[in-house]
Protein 1
Amino acid sequence: MPAGGARSSPKQPPLRARGEKVARRARVRRSAAPVLAGLVLLAGVLAAAWRYEVSSTKIPAGAFPVKLVVPPGASAEAIARQLHALRLVRHPLVFRAVARWRGVSAQLKAGEYALSGPLSLQGILDALARGDVVRRDLTIPEGRNIDEIADLVVAEGLDRAAFLEVARDPSPVRDLDPAATSLEGYLFPDTYDVPQSPEAPRVLVRRMLERFREVIDPQLGRMKERGLGVRQVVTLASIVELETARAGERPRIAGVFWNRLDKRMPLQTDPSVIYALKQAGRWDGNIRKRDLEIDSPYNTYRRRGLPPGPLGSPGKEAILAVLEPASSKDLYFVSRNDGSHEFSETLAAHNRAVNRFQRRRASS
């Protein structure tokens, strides 16, 4: 320690050295400033490009709809590639990024889309997330059975096997018909708005069943009073539906069948034989005398009572005709070959009607 005990101050760098360090720092700041400015500018450009890509119109108003078919299980990446091929996105990565940012990457629905403008990338993404697939009207005529309905479904681009799988599961109607082995008779005939998507068969069947319940539920009390089950009513209604296309005749035809059932007479209705032939793979569009001998529980020429189940899907008028049959003693009817029928109370009168309308036709 120096004399007098005084502490020495830390050694300071020369003034010149300190000046040079300050100068170097200033030069670094000056050289970094353009880089930072460039990065800020680039970020702004990228943000503007992002906003433009997301919000700009990809499909203008008035343009023809762009068809996009998204297969089941398609990823956001696969959809992005499709959109890129259709020139609806400039960069597939942007679509994937936006989908992930909005949390809908795993919610994009499969199906057929007809994208129409004005539509931006964001709008396209919204349509896919909502599942705004193409919808077509499918009309199911009265009297069609499950296989015939499946043919109509296929014609609208739906999967036949998927439809039949759902239509042959009786569990949705077990509360109404514990003996049901399928949904035969319960797929209500009407016009339905069908989505073009993998879920379409299930959606269609659900709507047809809902429509059936809308029609049958108000009648359940009346059925209970008369000791009738839903299966009985629908089965007989399906026969009435197939026997005549004239609404005014349905109550009278239903009355004939009720009269025959009361007398324990066989119904002897051709539609039941045709159904049996279809089940056996023998239906060629014509019914012959030998066909009336087919060994089937649906052959009402050989077996008394109602067939085991419905032959197809009856409409509301046929169901009501069974519940409100015309009061008569008629036991027979025969076609007049003009869509109407001749009714008879006795076999003799019926044979005369057959000679008049059917045999004359065969000889002409």
Note: The first strand starts at residue 57 and ends at 59.
Protein 2
Amino acid sequence: MIIKLHNIPIREVIAGYKDSAEEGIVGYHGQLNIRPAYQREFIYKPKQRDEVIQTVRKNFPLNTMYWVKTDDGNFELMDGQQRTLSICQYKNGDFSIDWDGHPRGFNNLTHEEQEQILDYKLSIYICEGNNKERLDWFTIINIASIKLTDQELRNATYTGPWLTDAKRWFSKKGAPAAAIGDKLVSGAAIRQEILEKALKWISNGQIEQYMQKHQHDPNAGELWQYFQAVIDWVNRIFPNQKSNRVKLMKGLEWGKFYNKHKGDNLNSQDLEKRIVELIDDDEVQNQKGIYEYLLTGDERALSLREFDEKTKVKKYEEQKGICVAKNAVCGNAHFEFDEMEADHIEPWHQGGKTVYENCKMLCKHDNRIKSGK
């Protein structure tokens, strides 16, 4: 692998700059792919973007950038996309910066000021090597820069027409997936988090295998249709998604629930009635677990209220340390306090409350057998 440092003036880097949205962004006379498939969308905040231009304007050194030379003799921007786009967009007139107390875009600068910016030399390492060498280098330089997410790193490996189409649905600002899943799915589209979630669901967690299998597919229609099916299913069985419910519903593993329960006979009116009851139930400590409980029946999702220490100590003394489990494996033996656990006499699902009168102390072994823990 060959790596060489080049000092390239801004006027050369931005020459031929063209932002074609989903079709890509190019510069350097059309030879530089500024946003390869593995790169993130533009995520700089205005202050960060402005600081790039201020650095150039003051002739301060800007952090080194990294390009990789492709097999066709062109280049891909490996590290430095945010800085490069900030420069290109400023030259393009997309924003202004504070210049001695006044907002000034590039076109408002004097000829001398413009030339100073265009003559500024960027320090760029250009790497030449095979695919494995380039990917290894990419991984190494990413350690020292702003970390890519796991999904952004996967995108670096499985580039192709499938990924290009998938990003169109899941990864752009205002992406269709973000729009239809706004109340249900957490994560930022431009950081590939919604794409990662959809892939996790459709592949049952085998994201790399799924991407490898479909890498050269002409489009990501299967994934997009699956994601729509998940959202439609949730909207059908849980139609009440008013503001007070969003905090409970957003971010749940809806795809996982869909995969296991899409064929269940679920009545939305009955489910809504139970949701209201569970929200009002003081025993339920984790209201976000209500939806999982209704689909799976697993009470652990609710984090039901437990007996406090005072109640347990008092009940232990009342029982004189004897395990009162029915058909006890221990033979209703005596135990030390820390060898016992509190249990409900009447279970929660039968209306039992977490109060002293409904408490019994069992040895850990019998309690866990009884509870299936």
Note: The chain has four domains: 2-148, 159-237, 267-302, 309-371.
Protein 3
Amino acid sequence: MLRADGFEKAEIGVSVGLGVHRIIYDYDRCIQILIDRDEMSQTDAVEYMQYNVVHAWVGDDTPMFIETMESAEIDEYADSMIGP
């Protein structure tokens, strides 16, 4: 399992199943770390996370990042993923 350097305080668990285990991070906590530690704006922190952390594939051990949502929010998000 690989760690996302500097985001240890955002670690919330480990994925299990199918022989692949990854460290899981709370996305919002990662954003807050960038804002507090690196004095980034919200916009800059989100942009940095997306381009430099979340989309950085380093193989099957690549960490996972989650956004916590209520059930209704998950439904709404899932519906938005379906094309027109």
Note: The first strand starts at residue 11 and ends at 14.
Protein 4
Amino acid sequence: MIIEKPWGREEILEKNDKYMLKKLTMFEGKRCSLQYHNIKTETIYVLFGQLLVWSGSDKNKLEPKTLRQFESITILPKVIHRMEAIKNCVYLEASTPEIDDVVRLEDDYKRI
């Protein structure tokens, strides 16, 4: 299933009771919402492009990390984070299966 997003698109490759796997495309200069998950753990793995990942425990003091092809980061529950494409980027997100576990703190596209 492909879901169009204001920053690109998300394709759910697998969702079952143990894990979820998505392929995401994010366009250069776009970013997802500033968010955290209460339960969900996710690992981001860049297939190509460059992705800037902001993360931390305080939304005003987030640490940036640039991911390039074949690099990854794991984001644990309660960690505030946001992904931003430095260059057009395709990445995989492997996570626990809680698809609706998203708490948005800020959003460029006025989503709740």
Note: The radius of gyration is 13 Å.
